[in-house]
Hints:
Chain A has 13 helices and 12 strands. By secondary structure, chain A is an alpha/beta fold. In chain A, helix 11 links the parallel strand 8 (245-248) and strand 9 (270-274).
Amino acid sequence: xxxxxxxxxxxxxxxxxxxxxxxxxxxxxxxxxxxxxxxxxxxxxxxxxxxxxxxxxxxxxxxxxxxxxxxxxxxxxxxxxxxxxxxxxxxxxxxxxxxxxxxxxxxxxxxxxxxxxxxxxxxxxxxxxxxxxxxxxxxxxxxxxxxxxxxxxxxxxxxxxxxxxxxxxxxxxxxxxxxxxxxxxxxxxxxxxxxxxxxxxxxxxxxxxxxxxxxxxxxxxxxxxxxxxxxxxxxxxxxxxxxxxxxxxxxxxxxxxxxxxxxxxxxxxxxxxxxxxxxxxxxxxxxxxxxxxxxxxxxxxxxxxxxxxxxxxxxxxxxxxxxxx
Amino acid sequence: xxxxxxxxxxxxxxxxxxxxxxxxxxxxxxxxxxxxxxxxxxxxxxxxxxxxxxxxxxxxxxxxxxxxxxxxxxxxxxxxxxxxxxxxxxxxxxxxxxxxxxxxxxxxxxxxxxxxxxxxxxxxxxxxxxxxxxxxxxxxxxxxxxxxxxxxxxxxxxxxxxxxxxxxxxxxxxxxxxxxxxxxxxxxxxxxxxxxxxxxxxxxxxxxxxxxxxxxxxxxxxxxxxxxxxxxxxxxxxxxxxxxxxxxxxxxxxxxxxxxxxxxxxxxxxxxxxxxxxxxxxxxxxxxxxxxxxxxxxxxxxxxxxxxxxxxxxxxxxxxxxxxx
DNA sequence: CTGAAAGCGCTTACAG
DNA sequence: CTGAAAGCGCTTACAG
Lengths: 325, 325
């Protein structure tokens, strides 16, 4: 049997209300009783039961991270930032994985209805406007990472700008036929990056050629895999009118692409996206996203909202940075 | 206000006990009332409150993963396996990060005392025998991944064997001065791999030379980083008596090591450890650990124990596999 | 098959 | 500063 506040109360000769107050740091308790209670609690090895606390106080003290799949680089880094921030708070962190194949909105709505957390951190969750609207009606603290919607606090990176930088750099270096190694087009960041790609071309009066947009066949993880990158690059290199440079929507795909180039002993300049830690070690040029910071500040702004419901909505948009290697 | 069983009970004209039974699939409820209750629950958008359920039933339906840091490759893959298994069960997954710098045993003991989960999955947690002994006294279901202790269910890989395979392969290929690119010596797997390294040397009558054991200066994450690998390889390559091959205790370090070799334009054969997905794409030979399977089966054996406390303890030990690239 | 009732371990106005 | 008491939303013997 676990120790309860009743055990402590009895031994300390006080009421359970007092014990409860001690643990809630309600400053009204006298120092002496506070100390006595604490000592006895330690002695008995007391730990408050989260479930009882939650039920009684109607607070869960939990933050729920909602994300597609957790085992990917971007997510890992963002999560690192979230954890860093949470270290200084007393919130517990839960993670919910949106199952692929099922409607994400439905899953999220269910989760929200369960009310198992006080605040929600959405990572790379992309919904329709009408769906965001509906979620907004739940009027529960939500912060978005890697997505933007005016009604919610958010931290994202200007994907259009990132792609624009990469492609512009190629153009300025004299390249004309620039391939876009893309991923699943349902992904919003992917679409934005395509925008940036087009914008750069247009600005330099290079006609858009849709044959230069290539995707791997592997659709697992929206195509953000080494394998998908490998496949796409193989197909790029074997196409009749070979491109002379390639912008790739993620580093992980770019690493697959590098391998493909090596395997057929051909090489064109490549720029990836994300700047995952590995990029530096495999000599990959890329567009840097401050992933860790994004996690950190999104968490901060979520907590701010949780403690102050009517603070103004903040939408932070980072500018990505071209890293040449 | 969230919908409760009271609301449903009233609307359905039954008692709350009946509503509760419907949701607990207690088969004693008549099909007609069951349907009626279900319909009303859906209509009202009812979701049971986990905290109330937990308090009343004294069950949490949670599994807690306890691990050092989550943002590393090994952890990610193992977690993938855990999640795969959990998909078919109704347990919720929580993750607790052991904070570096503080005593891990103390942290774990606190967590266990809180009793916030019904089963615990330890990933890469290495304690003293006396500490495992103490944890065993809590008589709560615990399964170990990447660690072995006779009293707990566990899934691990024979680290000594893995290192032995790698080093033996080098020796058979004619190499004599084989460096060991190591990591933090407090890590049990690292120590076991050192064992295997020594064993292979001994068997082939090659004297052990401790100058061939190299570690990076970066101790972050126990030295399992690209950076630490890079540093170590730089120092290896600049040592007076340069080795002619190198076995590295993790792929992530090996990738750093590859970069180091490139930077100084030297190259010696390298074998890593883990077989992370990237290894294939950077052409890294390695010792494969079935990380995903480990997560999957450890979870399975934990759940088995949770449902059947006195099943025999199972210690699964995988044999690693040499992958040449 | 169903209901009344006690209880899970806390929190928190309300008095004093 | 402290206590008595109600209540959080469920579950589960115990009767019937």
